[in-house]
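Quick one:
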Amino acid sequence: QVQLVESGGGLVQPGGSLTLSCQTSGFTSAYYVIAWFRQAPGEEREGVACIGSTEGRKEYADSVKGRFTISRDSAKNTVYLQMHNVQVEDTADYFCAAAPLIRFGLVDALYDYWGQGTRVTVSS
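Output:
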């Protein structure tokens, strides 16, 4: 059974840092693009970052470039999203998703498997 389980969300102050984790199981994650998406209340879901099978292939949304870093530990079947200098506008539910490597990108329609999400709230 394919599963993606996010963790690490919570309350963080503006300017702070947080690391989200996406634990995958039921499929060989090394053969999949893993992405992070987010959805703020009343907003459409947007792609945040994605990573291919190697550390060399990554893509970021302009809104998070220079602040967020995506990485993967294939031995642990886990993908991380390090969030630095978070801002109030980063408040959202964050989801990880998986797609075959050929579908690399930050368009949610590319992704077949989704986690349930973890909430990040940035507030002072």
